[in-house]
Design a protein that fits this description.
This protein is α+β, with helices and mostly antiparallel strands. The protein has helices at 14-26, 55-64, 155-168, 177-186, 197-205, 218-229, and strands at 2-9, 34-36, 42-47, 69-76, 79-86, 89-95, 101-106, 112-121, 124-130, 135-141, 144-148, 169-171, 193-195, 209-211. Strand 4 and strand 5 form a beta hairpin. Helix 1 packs antiparallel against helix 2 (55-64). The longest helix has 14 residues, at 155-168. The radius of gyration is 18 Å and the shape is globular.
Length: 232
């Protein structure tokens, strides 16, 4: 289950923001259903999405109304998260301790160097890793790394991967008109796998990389680096 609440506050043009966001969502083929629960001084939207929150539309609308604050809170299969967007930029993001750790890195022209998610299940580590050109699932136990082809991944592996993809990645096979337009404005080519534009902005502020991997996952990361990320 994925549930989310988005609140827009601030001393600004809330009614105009509402119309702008509605316009963006109507024109986004990937947008999902939502309900509105507005009060004086606050716009509130509630989602039960299958793919994730409409961060591109929220980011665009925020850039048009920089005086307003967009705050999103969500729960996905028991994992809680929170993000704040201001002036068209993702200013902060938090995930509940104990959630699957991630590591994401960008290269020149916004190219996805790699995005990795790693979760402990008992004595095993399971996860998913993608670059701009290829991807794989994996299991790790007792120093042994098993790479799993995408067509062979089970439901548990796919669910872990979705946690990364929903928040960070969009693929060239998707329509994603807002993301394509952002990449056109940046002058960046669209590749097989791409960072969502608001996440790319976050990486720029953090030195092109972001990690929430716990120290215990270091050996898994090293095994992936040696065998798959940089096997030479």
């Amino acid at each position: 289950m994925f549930t989310a609440v988005v609140r827009i506050t601030g001393a600004g043009r809330l009614a105009d923001f509402r119309e702008r966001l509605r316009w963006l969502l109507v024109r986004d083929p990937d947008a999902e259903d939502y309900t509105e629960h507005h009060e004086a001084g606050v716009l509130e939207y509630r989602f039960t999405p299958k793919r994730g929150l409409p961060f591109p539309a929220l980011t665009v609308a925020s850039g048009d109304f920089p005086e307003l604050r967009v705050e999103a809170e969500w729960e996905h299969d028991g994992v809680r998260g929170r993000a704040v967007i201001e002036n068209g930029q993702l200013s902060s993001e938090e995930t509940q301790p104990g959630a699957a750790g991630i590591e994401v890195s960008a290269a020149e022209e916004g190219r996805l160097s790699h995005a990795l998610i790693c979760e402990r299940q008992g004595e095993d580590w399971i996860g998913y890793v993608t670059t701009a050109e290829r991807h794989t699932y994996f299991r790790y136990r007792g120093g042994a790394l098993e790479l799993i082809e995408p067509d062979d991944a089970d439901e548990t592996l796919e669910e872990v991967a979705f946690r990364l993809v929903d928040e960070w990645i969009w693929y060239d096979e998707e329509d994603a008109p807002l993301e394509r337009e952002r990449y056109r404005q940046y002058g960046y080519p669209v590749r097989g796998a791409n960072l969502k534009s608001e996440k790319l902005a976050l990486l720029r502020r953090q030195g092109e990389s972001h990690s929430t991997l716990e120290p215990a996952a270091a050996e898994v990361r090293a095994a992936l680096q040696a065998r798959w990320l940089n096997p030479t």
